[in-house]
Amino acid sequence: MTTLPTILPPYAALLALLFVYLSVRTIGTRRRLQIAIGDKDHPEMQRAMRVHANFAEYVPLGLVMLALVEARAPAPWLMHALCLCLLLGRGLHAYGVSQAAERFQFRVAGMALTFTCLIGSSLYLLGTGLAQ
Predict the structure, then answer these.
(1) Taking the CA of residue 64 as centre, how many other CA atoms within 13 Å lie in the half-sphere pointing to its CB?
(2) Membrane-crossing residues (predicted)?
(3) pLDDT of residue 39 exceeding 90
(4) pTM confidence score
């Protein structure tokens, strides 16, 4: 019998709220700069769009991987660690890249945490899959 995820949903909810925040911020930038479509070669618009898009590129795969891990009923500490890596990683990355004078250390830390989540989840799934 499979159990419903219990650790992942609050992290998924927080990531969804962060996505909405990034979306609203991008829409606000569009309105302020009067750019309906594309970026019109405006650096601020390009930055807002990339922060939003980068989040949208990594979070879905991260959530799928985390759901697969949780379905295998890992130790709760492992699930929290992997979820925190994704949540903090995406937050740090968004913050770092959002700055006009980019805060590169936040970008790097954010990607490192995101990759830790993806690689850790992958290794866990491979290890538990091979053990069957």
Answers:
(1) 6
(2) 6-24, 108-127
(3) no
(4) 0.91
